[in-house]
Amino acid sequence: MSKSIKLLSLTAVAAGVLLAAGCDNDSQPQAAEAEASAPVVDQQAPTQFLPASDPTNQGGWVLNEMVSDEFNGDSLDKEKWFVQGENGDYYIWKGRAPSQFAPHNVKVEDGMLKLVSQWEPDYPFAYGEGHEGKDYAEFEGQKVPVTTAAVVGNKRFLNGYMEVRTKAADAAMTSSFWAIGYQQELDVYEQMGRPTGEGPLDISGNTLKASIHDWQPPAQRPTRKFGHKTKLDFNVADDFHVYGAEWGEDYIRFYLNGELISESTQEEVGEHWVMTNPMEIWLDSEIFVWLGLPTPEQLPATYEIDYVRVWQQPHPNLLDRAFYGFEGPILFEENPRPLDLVPENSENNDYQKFWAIDEASAKSLQRVRNEQFAKGTWSLKYTGGNSAVAKAVAPQGSLRVPAGDYEISARVWVAPEATAEQIAFTLNGDEAAIAAFDLGELARGEWVQVKQDFNYTDANTNDFMQIAVNDIENGQGVLYIDDIAIEQK
């Protein structure tokens, strides 16, 4: 089976790019308005794929090729996917015990990705190791030598519509489509074709369940904060269906065969809204012991994925919106992702880096969540009374600024009693600011957008931004900064 395809490249339609390091237009696509067109009917002609939820592309969606895959050919594209267990390498974990991921169970054939689960007593399991108090290949004194499979996307993306066409494994094994990022997880679905557990089950063969998890430290279970569970009129292992999720800045929508089945908004969810950072896609199968163990007679069983497609919409902000909204780290995806990088990790490494605030400035400046924010849930908070000048510095290489004319903007919230006088933005440690905003005449107690034009002539690959808040000596009051943007003039 071969699927003819003509992919609409993000880079081919990009208009005036100011790149955030490591994003390569994945989490921050900069594209001209995509042409709205219906799918081509002629099966012999190249096809521009469009979302099942928006087949005439009213949303101006652009396919992100870096995180999409048709699974044509006879091998997996390792530029796009990490195979759990290949060359002995595992990312985060070896699988949900008692099952263990094994690379030989990942297959690409017949135009599909196939993730196989098998009963393999002779497989060299990681005996003595486990997960959540359970050992691999064993459960409550009985042997459960089940190998399974997982692939993980190598690139992350921020917001978009993600879609798969899949058929679940016909066994007591999960078939899952999910994503994780910094302190967040989105389970588009966790399906089980034939659970063996007794009594009322959270997931059955005709259940579609989605979950959003908060992995902020201490990240103790239960981490699930909201989601949906829908009863279907079919078994997920009987045939292929199209499953989708549209992830916006402040909403999440779930689709089945192009039809909306559930929606949640940040306003409804409140402080449990966590999906503000780029995420990577996971496709895997696991054992959920609370839903019953698979039997040798059920295996081998195969989870089949026809395609993974992710579309995004052009955005006028040329900066990495998560990082410059203080939501999380800037990603340097040209460097290897650490194999032990769990979602709750906030350490600087070659793959992710955070705003730097020196010891003196830290008395006045800090990232805060769910206090005052313009977008997302985080912002940069300044508290007077400690230092006349407080600075936050972005990592080197977090900007790549071509020479040109730009507009920089930010949103600022100033308390009525605040004495801070100015917020200044500089690039690369220069003394001269590209923009400085006087706070004296600014409206108090509400979010105000400030903006200023600037010209930049020194293009290099290690650009970075510095934010300085200037206050009077022993000043008072608080202010918040959020949603920094740079747009090309």
Describe the structure.
This protein is an all-beta fold and 489 residues long. Helices cover 1% and strands 37% of the residues. The chain contains 1 helix and 32 strands. The protein has one helix at 266-269, and strands at residues 62-63, 81-83, 100-101, 106-109, 112-119, 130-131, 134-135, 138-139, 142-143, 146-148, 150-153, 160-167, 174-181, 184-192, 207-214, 224-231, 241-247, 251-256, 259-265, 279-284, 301-312, 330-331, 352-353, 365-369, 378-383, 389-393, 404-414, 422-427, 435-438, 447-456, 465-470, 478-488. Strands 1, 3, 4, 5, 10, 12, 17, 18, 19 and 21 form a 10-stranded mixed beta sheet that branches. The protein has a 7-stranded antiparallel beta sheet with strand order 2-11-20-13-14-15-16, with no helix packed on it. A 5-stranded antiparallel beta sheet has the order 24-25-32-27-30, with no helix packed on it. β13 and β14 form a beta hairpin. It starts with 61 loop residues before the first strand and ends with a strand. 44% of the residues are buried.
